[in-house]
Structures are given as C-alpha cells and as structure tokens.
Specification:
heterodimer; A: 274 residues; 10 helices; 61% helix; B: three-stranded antiparallel β-sheet; 28% helix; 20% strand
Chain lengths: 274, 99
C-alpha cells in the first residue's frame, strides 16, 4: 500500500507516532555510535586508522543529522533540540551503541556488526513508502559501502593475524552478540509501520536476513556462529538471547554518563545562538 | 611499516598524478586508507596504490640533465635542405634526372 502523496509528504503520515519512533531509532543509533567512536580520535592504533575511523564516526553523525532534520520537518521542531535536548529515557538507540568503547577489537567489531545490520535495514527502507526516508536511505547506503569494506578487512585481520588478535576478536564477538541482536528489538507501533509500507519488512524478518548475510563471515574465518536456520519458519534465529530495552528508552548507566557529556554544552544554554 | 605511494586519476582517460603517501601494514589496508585520504571528497575517479619499494628511480643529473656541450651537430636543423629539396622536386616534375 502506497500512502505517499508527492505534493505533500506530511499527508503520508497516518500514524506520526510510529514513524517518529522509527526515525528516532534510526537517528539515535547513528548518533550514539558516532559519538562513541569519535572517542578514538587521537588514540587509534595508527594515524591512518585514526583518520579513517574518525571519518566513519563523522559519517554516522551525518546520517543522524539527516534523520533528525527529517523529524524536525515532520514535527515542526528543531534538529539540534531533538539531538541534544531530550532526556536519557527518550533516546531510542539500542544498548549496543552506548557500551564503552572497550579495546580496539571491540570497537571495530561493534562497527562491523552494526554496519552489516544497518545495511540490511537501509536496503529495506529504500523501498519505504514514506518518500523522504526512502530518498535519504538511498544516499546513505552508498556511504555504507566503505564502512563494510573497513569492517570486513578488520574482521579478517583480527581473525588471522595472531593468536592474540584472534583472542581479542572472539572475546569481542561474545560480548557484543546479545547487544547486536538488540538492533532488531521490535519497535513500538511496528505492525502499523509494516502495514503502511513505511517499514517494508518486520525487524524479525530483517534480523533473519542480517544473520544470513553475516553467517559467511563467521564460517570463512572458522568462528563460532551463534545462530541457526529454523527449519519450520525458514528464518535464521540467534542461539543466544538478545539484550532488549533501548528501543523503549531503557538504557544503562553507561548511557547516562555518555549523555551527560554529549549534551553538556547544549544544556549550558539551550536557547543560545551560536 | 611500509609506505605506499598513491596516484590519482581525476577523470576517466586522464593521466594519473601523484597524490601522496599512506602508511599501512599491507596493500589491502593501504587501499582502505588511500580511499579515505585521496578519495573521500569525490576528488578521484580511480586510485593506484603502489608499494614504494616497487618503484625504481633514476635521478642522476648527469643522465637527466646532460652537460651543456654543443650537440647541434646531432640535429638536422643545422643544415639547410631547402635549396636541394626544391631542385629535386623541379627535377622530378620535369622528368629530368637530378645530378
């Protein structure tokens, strides 16, 4: 069902509540991960990587900005206010993003798991019936190609370079996996979004697609893959339980600390003109 | 860590120019960083990444800037062939064998 009116994009929104939730989840994922990864600026393992990883963090914040602007137009609000002016419980990013940066393996593997999931999500949203979102994701997905190349390269490197690097990789994957599944925590109002074609497939179906896409990375590197295909439904399901909560605004103490720092300048004077 | 030289082509068919270097453990990572440093702002159509050690160099001034001795005798522009050329053409046109 196509609910888009080309002359007036706002007329496509039958249930602004659920579209807003989707946009917030997308924006907050990108924003929080971008902020976290920017912590590597100046301390990455080598200069070239420092620039590359910082630039990728900036890409994520750039994508967040697109989604916040879309939300601002939709609600008549202000993008900065949406980005910085909410209380911690109003952020809908999954908990994967707020975890401290850990060691280098942890951060690059988190980026890999998120980018592969984000890619599946963006490809689906390119067919979204809400046109501004469909258009934006088509642009963003092209930028993701570099991120995937970066993640693939590092995953392979960590798995094969030395026993030590492999140990770090295995530990990172074990720690990250339940959180990474949290990307696919069902959204409030998701059924409505699917029914209206705003979300072309449920997060459950997209999670299966993601698992299918990342499986070869694990098999090729002889890493234990914590998921299997359910013969009855034909869907890939994780054999490890997911960590949920972020999509409902439930966050850890790590988020509070991050939020306090991230919004500290904004909160000095929310009305300031810079 | 090895140094890689990066060459950029700005448009299809254009000559490659030297962009600069990246430091990386191997060619795969070098490509990753070359894209980041020399291709992120749509400034490149194609990049070549070459290990510096693969480049053989010549920069001996005796070879590349030979001393300015008079070598004009090697160049044909020291001779005037105009008159002989004209005579030969005339001879051919008149079916007369030149001497």
């Amino acid at each position: 069902m196509n609910v888009t009116d080309n002359n007036n994009p706002q007329s496509a929104i039958r249930n602004p509540q659920s579209l807003e939730i989707l946009l917030l989840a997308l924006a907050d994922d990108e924003f929080i991960l971008g902020v976290r990864n920017s912590e590597w600026t100046g301390i990455a393992p080598m200069l070239e990587e420092d620039v590359a990883f910082s630039s990728m963090a900036q890409d994520e914040i750039g994508h967040a900005r697109l989604f916040y602007q879309m939300l601002a137009e939709l609600t008549g609000g202000d993008a900065d206010k949406i980005a910085y002016g909410r209380q911690p419980g109003e952020y809908l990013s999954c908990q994967l993003m707020e975890r401290p940066r850990g060691d280098w393996a942890y951060s690059v593997v988190r980026q890999f798991l998120y980018d592969t999931a984000d890619y599946v999500r963006l490809e689906a949203l390119a067919r979204c019936s809400y046109e501004p979102l469909a258009n934006a994701t088509q642009k963003i997905v092209r930028e993701e190609k570099y991120h995937l190349m970066h993640g693939d390269t590092w995953l392979h490197r960590l798995a094969t370079q030395s026993d030590t690097s492999r140990e770090h990789l295995v530990a990172a994957l074990a720690a990250l996996w339940p959180d990474a599944l949290g990307v696919w925590e069902p959204l409030e109002g998701e059924e409505q979004l699917v029914a209206e074609g705003i979300l072309p497939a449920s997060f459950e179906a997209l999670r299966s697609e993601w698992l299918e896409q990342v499986a070869p990375h694990f098999y090729n590197l002889d890493l234990e893959f914590p998921a299997k295909k359910d013969e009855r439904s034909g869907l890939y399901v994780s054999t490890v339980e997911a960590v949920y909560g972020g999509r409902r605004g439930t966050h850890t103490e790590d988020f509070t600390a991050l939020w306090e720092e991230m919004t500290s300048v904004y909160r000095l004077d929310p009305e300031a003109e810079w | 860590m090895p140094i890689f030289e990066v060459f950029q082509q700005t448009r299809e068919g254009h000559a490659f120019t030297h962009g600069g270097q990246v430091v990386a453990p191997d060619a795969e990572m070098a490509l990753l960083y070359a894209r980041e440093f020399y291709g992120r702002r749509q400034e490149s159509h194609r990049l070549w990444v070459v290990p510096r050690e693969a480049i053989v160099e010549i920069n001996d001034p005796d070879l590349l800037h030979p001393p300015a001795v008079d070598r004009s005798y090697r160049n044909s522009n020291g001779y005037s062939v105009r008159d002989r050329l004209r005579a030969t053409r005339g001879a051919v046109a008149g079916s007369v064998q030149p001497d």
